[in-house]
Amino acid sequence: MIEKATLQDISKLTALINSAYRGKNSKKGWTTESHLLEGKRTTEKELTDIILNPKNTFLKFTENQQIIGSVLFEEQDHQLYLGMLTVSPELQNSGIGKKMLAEGENHAKTLGLSIISITVVSVRSELIAWYKRHGYVETGQREAFPESEIHINISEKPLEFIYLKKQI
Fold first, then answer.
1. Which of 14, 52, 87, 142 has the smallest C-beta neighbourhood within 10 Å, fewest atoms?
2. Which domains does the chain have, with CATH numbers?
3. 25-32 long-range CB contacts below 8 Å, 24 or more apart?
4. Which residues pair with 58 in a beta bridge?
5. How far apart are the first and last CA of the chain?
6. What is the 3-state secondary structure (H, E, C) of 57-123?
7. Helices 44-52 & 10-21, crossing angle to 10 degrees?
8. Beta-ladder partners of 73
9. What letter does residue 53 receive in the DSSP assignment?
10. One pLDDT digit (tens) per residue for the chain, 168 residues
């Protein structure tokens, strides 16, 4: 079931997102960033701020009362930004990510928006290819990857975000 996340979901969402992107557990899935970054992917404070922002819609995917996926949609000017697409590492490649992308398209249409944009770390070629298979195209726009106390770059290559978008 896909539904809107609430403040009561924050701790479970934080654990899920961090486990899917960073650390030992993330290596069970193909979307890990643990070879590129150390630290956490998100914090409870960041997710609280996201959920409380009226321009954001944060969805959770639940099965058997467990949160196994999530995604952020942020209304921006004339497009919908999609971020933090997360699927439990043990369940990746099971179609949950595709369902969350489809939900994003439905949400954009509900808002009267015809473009969905995303950012992906430039060296994540397998993830970029996955989005391209789902209709996203590179825009040519890039920006430096932000480093902080929770985003610690351990990659030998410089990291940057590339922008992709999809016309719906």
1. 52
2. 2-167 (3.40.630.30)
3. 25/89, 26/89, 27/89, 28/89, 28/90, 29/87, 29/88, 29/89, 29/90, 29/92, 30/92, 30/93, 30/126, 31/87, 31/89, 31/92, 31/127, 32/89
4. 72
5. 23
6. EEEEEEECCEEEEEEEEEEECCEEEEEEEEECHHHCCCCHHHHHHHHHHHHHHHCCCCEEEEEEECC
7. 120
8. 57, 82
9. -
10. 999 999 999 999 999 998 876 656 555 555 655 555 556 778 899 999 999 999 999 999 999 999 999 999 999 989 999 999 988 878 888 899 999 999 999 999 999 999 999 999 888 888 899 999 999 999 999 998 777 666 555 566 777 889 999 999
How far apart CA 23 and CA 34 sit, in angstroms, is 6
CB atoms within 10 A of CB 135: 14
18's enclosing H/E stretch is helix 10-21
Beta bridge partners of 79: 76
Structure tokens, 45: 């404070």
Indicate yes or no: pTM above 0.70: yes
Q: How many CA atoms lie within 13 A of 118 on its CB side?
A: 25
